[in-house]
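Researcher: Structure for this, please.
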Amino acid sequence: MIILITGASHTGKTALAQKLLETYNYPYLSIDHLKMGLIRSGNTSLTPMSDDDDLTAYLWPIVREMVKTAIENKQNLIVEGCYIPFDWAKDFEKEYLEHIKYYCLVMSENYIRNHFSDINKYANIIENRIDDSDCTMESVIQDNERFLKLAQRFGVNYVLIDEEYEIDIDLGLKCEDTNMNNLTIRLETKKDYRAVEELVREAFWNIYKPGADEHYYVHQMRNHPDFIPELAFVLEKEGEIIGNIMYTKAWLEDEKGNRKEILSFGPLCVAPEYQRQKLGKILIEHSFDVARKMGYDVNINFGNPGNYVSRGFVSCKKKNVSYIVDGNFPTALLVCELVPNVLDGRKWMYIPSTAADCCEDVAAVEAFDATFPPKEKAWMPSQEEFYIYSHSSVVR
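Model: Predicted structure, token format:
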């Protein structure tokens, strides 16, 4: 989803964008930052003092194509700034417009006169304004009157700030506010296999390496003796599979050779257009509840710590769990006790399932991938991040 936020100066566009970022984890683009980057790099003869119409004519085509690119790649983005034309919608075809929400912030004259001291006070709450000396009550009133007239003239969606500054935009995407009647978690069935493999391929493509092999892993995992079908769940929204989680058995072995059977989930994925809405959390918590009832009390898997520490995972070192050799604590090896304090402090060695070994057969991975529509392999920064996490260890 794309959120366009525009409005007169000092209406709180940047603060609203920051609030939405913190609520929904949507990244945001400040058109002011884009403007200054282009000006300071010498890519335009325009200056910060150029006419707003000239700046809009220059900046909007760039922003417009960035928005289209984000939609085509099923990415969420907040765009804020005053350089969004009021007839913006004419630049997008229907298939793009369905993914865009637009908000124009306008303060009434009554609000400005009664709260002008607050407007000045909070002007720098998010970003520092170098020179705000031309901000007078009358200039702010005139600017907002102009935006209100234009918003009404073009029939666009505007938010009028009148008596109190209350802007509470609910995109309907917060996990805790999600209508659970439209979400279904159920066990995977054979008829879901291809849809799940397509979902996994889409979610992991170019994330950890150019291309992906997770969909082949899923395809092969189901026939591996360590696979646990009772914990293979799909998340449906209105009949469409938008997420999944799968588990294999794994083991912990203590210094006396005693083995404890545990769990390891993966892949866990959510369709790109539904990511960062806490749907992965729903899948983890639901499957953990079922796992506890099955008698499992520990889950260990490799992953980006930033994705899991808020879900109760900790470094393997904190639970004295080594990998391959005693005292090796990989940064990416994360432990979650489904039953608190079930690991009693003794030394453990993590023994994963061999289910993922199938991905070492590169020819088989490529042959399977060839049965899907072609996708371009590319390098992404996340691949280097994955390399760092997967090749480092906690040493103290």
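Researcher: Any notable elements?
Model: The longest helix spans residues 52-72. Residues 172-181 have pLDDT under 50 and may be disordered.
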